[in-house]
Design brief:
The protein has 24 helices and 31 strands. By secondary structure, it is of the alpha/beta class. The protein folds into 6 domains: 195 residues, Rossmann fold (3-Layer(aba) Sandwich); 76 residues; 189 residues, Vaccinia Virus protein VP39 (Rossmann fold); 178 residues, 2-Layer Sandwich (Beta-Lactamase); 102 residues, PAS domain (Beta-Lactamase), CATH 3.30.450; 54 residues, no CATH class. It has a 7-stranded parallel sheet with strand order 3-4-2-1-7-8-9, sandwiched between helices. A 7-stranded mixed sheet has the order 15-11-10-16-17-19-18, with helices on both faces. The N terminus is likely disordered.
Length: 911
């Protein structure tokens, strides 16, 4: 059946009534009868009873309830509209769902060996009714209803379960209570009263009933502060509506109508603060939630991750908000399947984190109710799970790939260098400011080609520049590798030291010349104008021709900066021309630049030519050409103009040119100042970036420490478990009087009980030695040979031996040592004292011989009888080898044990 999402449902009317789902199985008939005996006639609720029914038999529950209650009782039919004050019973061969207030009957999934009708209806009820949903689990075996109850709890509904001591079969109530999501555990007769009181609370009337009384403005900060002081967790980043509805729900459970009274109740009852904290933790999860999303993940994402990894590489996955671990295990399973499909097995590390320590403890156990068969295929159940005590336990190969830890996503350091983050349906409960912090955090923790897997109702929002969508429907994104965008800035007009990059460029440009280059060099020197080659830092890389009249070494520290080397009158124009050419990446020509000389002045045209990038020369190289147009002209030599006027005209022209050059230089200086500010800004950003990198390094160290703490916590839990198991084994070995010794496949001693010292010369340090090296006190030298025989045949072997000189007899048994994976890994020897039994057997044998001796010596006819319980007749059990009462021997008289005495003939005159 296709699951119905929130977008598929039509809006429900505000005056909708509560629907109570009741699940029961074995022993539930009496509980249901008791329940409805105490339900008022006009209660304003609808009751849907879901039982485990045989498809071939009609239920008699309807006939029973009609005698005990005045509420209308009907069997559910497909398309029937649900109404209040009515009891609905599920048909035996269909699964019941509800959509828009109408029952929908569907055929059960034939591929599933176990039918789970209660889970099916509870999940449908949660989607339909949301916070108005109510579910009750009564007597029954198995765990049907557990997952559905979790769904009802997740949407804010009420969950109830029958008290275990009252339930005839407590399996279903116990499985529900073990989840920690049952609100009320009560005897059946008290449930109707609690239901009536609950539905009268303002919580079910609408979300604004209590919030209008000042919950958000006055009491919400106080309650959140109380939670933080008690639990250490701050929920101020959660969405206010969600928090308010959870508070209102707790008020309804305690039948408190005023928020001020509930705040006082919290102050007086610290356990209620912890209960509210648990309610605020949304733990709605299941195996392979949204199966289509996992299919897309397996086809589009996992192959890309695995194929990009080298041999012995790590695949790291993080699942924040993992709850009880279903999401983490689901990812581990599809990861292993993808590795099998690609034939590439890598080191898989999945980090499951949650703020709830109890949920993490459940996840670490790796045990899930039998009802998970509704979410996990039979093939995966068989391969990755083991059936244990009615539950499914994840196999060791999958469990060891997942590391669970308690972590606060908002405040604790994250895991880093991740290939995949699965954060599904967690962000929807957080407000926008915290989402804007978490999404960049996810971007930081992912590898350059890592993936982000969100819930179907979540989105990356304004962070489209951080992630590329892979699948829009199922919200799968890939991290974008962003380059740092720096503003275009140029160095100030100071000296720039030659960098290694500059030296490399010079080496490339001034490489060894061949003959063609020599010819070109001669032609350039003779006919080409003077020029220089500069880079984008104004450093001169090469001189061509005689540039002495344009450039001169500066005083002070040596420098190849062209702006420092430019002569007076040329520097301003050269600065403007270079800046324009570098900025626009095009040829810039400045004509008629006046350059002063000792004997006059010259007019020079400046050409700034950018060079194309080649294998021999990098980009950002520019050729500066000095093209002299007119020869130097001596002062006062104009024949047509008087010397004074010519000199005045020349002076005026020079001043105009200097003024123009000054204006252009001023503009260039202003631009340079802006560039310097940009450079300072860029430097500041680089410093901030460096600071962020240092902060990132610190966070990575914290994250590494967090991982180590998580690993240590996991190992400490395992150590505690192993210590407890070891204590149990040691106490068992010490208290038992049976001699037991465990051997490996090479007959090396693994472990033995203290009583084994009666049969072998063993001391505690003999663990690890071969049994062949230990002398036996039994006198039987074939024990090692018999053990090897059992290893070869895998057949149990048993014998009786007399050990030592104390006359004691022992039963010696050889059994194969089997691991949890049903692999043979040694032999187990047990010595059981049977001396007393042997003594009794000897006494019995002696008594039998003694009796036979008496019978053999008696010369009179003798018939030994035993009393038969079925009627009191006697049966002969032993006859001597003498003449019987009619003068015939045993053979001729056909006397046989077991026959009655009246069946034999007697001599005349005898009784």
């Amino acid at each position: 059946m296709k699951q119905i999402g929130p977008k598929d449902r039509k809006p429900r009317a505000k005056k909708s009534f509560p629907i109570v789902g009741i699940g029961a199985s074995a022993g539930g008939l009496e509980a249901i009868e008791t329940f409805f005996t105490h339900v008022p006639t006009s209660v304003g609720m609808a009751f849907v009873v879901i039982q485990h029914l045989s498809p071939q038999h009609r239920s008699i529950l309807g006939d029973i309830l009609k005698k005990d209650t005045l509420i209308k009782v009907v069997e559910v039919e497909d398309g029937m509209r649900i109404v209040p004050n009515c009891i609905y019973l599920n048909p035996p061969d269909k699964e019941v769902g509800i959509f828009n207030g109408i029952f929908q009957l569907v055929e059960p999934d034939k591929s599933r060996k176990i039918r789970l009708p209660i889970d099916h209806f509870f999940r449908s009820l949660a989607e339909e009714q949301a916070e108005k949903a109510i579910c009750i689990i009564l007597s029954g075996t198995g765990s049907d209803g557990t997952l559905g109850l979790e769904a009802v709890k997740g949407v804010g509904g009420l969950t109830m379960a029958q008290a275990e001591q009252q339930a005839k079969y407590p399996g279903m109530p116990r499985s529900a209570v073990d989840t920690g999501m049952v609100d009320l555990v009560l005897p059946v007769e008290k449930m109707p009263g609690e239901l009536v009181n609950y539905v009268k609370q303002p919580y079910l009337e609408g979300p604004e009933t209590i919030t209008g009384e000042g919950l958000r403005e006055n009491f919400l900060p106080k309650i959140l502060m109380l939670i933080r002081s008690t639990t250490g967790h701050d929920f101020s980043h959660y969405k206010v509506n969600t928090i308010c509805r959870r508070i209102e729900r707790r008020m309804a459970l305690h039948k408190v109508a005023r928020i001020a009274d509930y705040h006082r109740y919290l102050q007086e009852n610290p356990p209620e603060v912890k209960a509210l904290f648990k309610d605020l933790l949304i733990k709605v999860t299941s195996f392979f939630r949204d199966p289509a999303a996992f299919e897309v993940l397996a086809k589009k994402v996992l192959p890309s991750i695995l194929e990009s990894k080298g041999r012995d590489a790590n695949v790291r996955v993080w699942v924040p908000g993992c709850a009880s671990g279903e999401e983490s295990i689901s990812l581990a399973i599809i990861m292993v399947e993808a590795m099998d499909w690609l034939g590439k097995h890598l080191n898989l590390q999945i980090f499951g984190t949650d703020i709830d320590a109890d949920a993490i403890e459940r996840a670490r156990l790796g045990e899930y109710p039998e009802s998970v068969v509704a979410d996990v295929s039979p093939e995966r159940l068989q391969r990755f799970f083991v059936k244990k005590d009615g539950n499914y336990k994840i196999k060791k190969e999958i469990r060891e790939t997942v590391l669970y830890a308690v972590q606060n996503l908002v405040s604790d350091p994250p895991f880093t260098k991740l290939d995949l983050i699965s954060c599904r349906n967690l962000l929807i409960y957080m407000n926008a400011p915290i989402q804007k912090k978490i999404l960049p955090l996810f971007h930081f923790t992912l590898n350059p080609e890592g993936y982000l897997f969100l819930g179907s109702s979540e989105t990356i929002g304004a962070f489209a520049d951080l992630f590329t969508p892979i699948d829009v429907k199922w919200k799968i994104f890939q991290r974008k590798g962003l380059a740092i965008q720096k503003p275009a800035a140029y160095p100030p007009l100071g000296s720039m030291p030659t960098s290694p990059e500059t030296e490399l460029t010079i080496k490339r440009v001034t490489r060894e010349m061949n003959v063609r280059e020599i010819m070109g060099r001669i032609i350039l020197d003779k006919y080409a104008p003077p020029s220089v080659l500069v880079n984008d830092r104004y450093e001169i890389l090469y001189f061509q021709g005689n540039t002495d009249q344009y450039l001169a070494p500066p005083s002070g520290e040596p420098s190849f900066n062209i702006l420092k080397m430019a002569r007076e009158g040329l520097r301003y124009k050269l600065t403007t021309a270079l800046r324009q050419g570098m900025k626009e990446k095009r040829t810039v020509i400045y004509q008629g630049v006046q350059l002063k000389k000792k004997d006059g002045s010259v007019t020079v045209d400046l050409h700034i030519q950018p060079l194309l990038e080649t294998p021999e020369a990098p980009a950002n190289l520019f050729l500066v050409v000095f093209d002299e147009k007119t020869p130097a002209r001596p002062k006062g030599k104009d024949r047509k103009t008087p010397p004074e006027e010519a000199e005045a005209d020349a002076r005026l022209t020079t001043l105009e040119q200097e003024l123009q050059a000054t204006k252009e230089y001023l503009e260039s200086t202003i631009e340079e100042l802006g560039a310097s500010n940009e450079e300072l800004q860029s430097t500041n950003e680089e410093l901030q970036s460096t600071n962020e990198e240092l902060e990132t390094a610190r966070e990575e160290l914290q994250s590494t420490n967090e991982e180590l703490v998580s690993v240590n916590s996991e190992l400490q839990t395992k150590i505690d478990d192993m210590t407890e198991i070891n204590n149990d084994i040691n106490n068992l070995f010490t208290s038992t009087e049976v001699g037991i010794i465990f051997l490996d496949t090479q007959l090396g001693i693994r472990r033995f009980t203290p009583n084994m010292t009666q049969f072998f010369n063993l001391i505690p340090t003999d663990a690890g030695r071969s049994l062949r090296d230990i002398t036996s006190k039994t006198g039987d030298d074939r024990i090692c040979q018999d053990a090897e025989e059992v290893l070869a045949t895998l057949q149990t072997k048993e014998m009786e031996i007399k050990a030592g000189g104390d006359g004691k007899w022992y039963n010696l048994r050889f059994l194969p040592y089997r691991t949890s994976e049903n692999m043979i890994d040694g032999v187990v020897l047990t010595f059981v004292d049977i001396t007393e039994r042997k003594s009794l057997e000897s006494l019995i044998q002696a008594a039998r011989i003694y009796a036979e001796s008496i019978v053999d010596t008696v010369r009179e006819p003798l018939l030994v009888l035993r009393w038969r319980l079925d009627g009191g007749l006697c049966q002969p059990v032993f006859l001597p080898d003498v003449q019987d009462v009619d003068g015939r021997d045993r053979e001729s008289a056909h006397l046989r044990p077991g026959r009655g005495p009246m069946e034999y003939s007697q001599p005349a005159g005898t009784a």
